[in-house]
């Protein structure tokens, strides 16, 4: 994700004041989160739909994040980091990602506040369980 886009979204606000960010359709660099820092302490809503995100490894701590739109990316694993970095997530949209295995989704069981998980159009929904 380009730093320029983050600067545009911020406007004149300091990162500590931002509660909502939308980066839909902004392509990530190397499939990773870049430019999003721990300074976004008040962030509650984050939308990163269709940004070609494949990894959450560079995810900063976003303790107040409650709702995260991650639809139509290429994420296939690495979800265990969410419990540590985003412990208060209540809504997570992973629809249209490359999630194939139940073990990948089981990593989300440590998100104690999670109430809604969207896996529509992920490969795991075609397992025929």
Automatic annotation (TrEMBL):
It is found in: Cytoplasm; Nucleus. Signal peptide: none annotated. GO terms for cellular component: cytoplasm; nucleus. GO terms for molecular function: histone binding; phosphatase inhibitor activity. InterPro entries: AN32 (IPR045081), Leu-rich_rpt (IPR001611), LRR_dom_sf (IPR032675). Keywords: Chaperone, Chromatin regulator, Cytoplasm, Leucine-rich repeat, Nucleus, Repeat. The keyword Repeat applies. Pfam families: LRR_9. GO terms for biological process: chromatin organization; regulation of apoptotic process. PANTHER family: ACIDIC LEUCINE-RICH NUCLEAR PHOSPHOPROTEIN 32, ACIDIC LEUCINE-RICH NUCLEAR PHOSPHOPROTEIN 32 FAMILY MEMBER E. Belongs to the ANP32 family. Multifunctional protein that is involved in the regulation of many processes. Histone chaperone that specifically mediates the genome-wide removal of histone H2A.Z/H2AZ1 from the nucleosome: removes H2A.Z/H2AZ1 from its normal sites of deposition, especially from enhancer and insulator regions. Not involved in deposition of H2A.Z/H2AZ1 in the nucleosome. May stabilize the evicted H2A.Z/H2AZ1-H2B dimer, thus shifting the equilibrium towards dissociation and the off-chromatin state. Inhibits activity of protein phosphatase 2A (PP2A). Does not inhibit protein phosphatase 1. May play a role in cerebellar development and synaptogenesis. This is Acidic leucine-rich nuclear phosphoprotein 32 family member. It comes from Piliocolobus tephrosceles (Ugandan red Colobus).
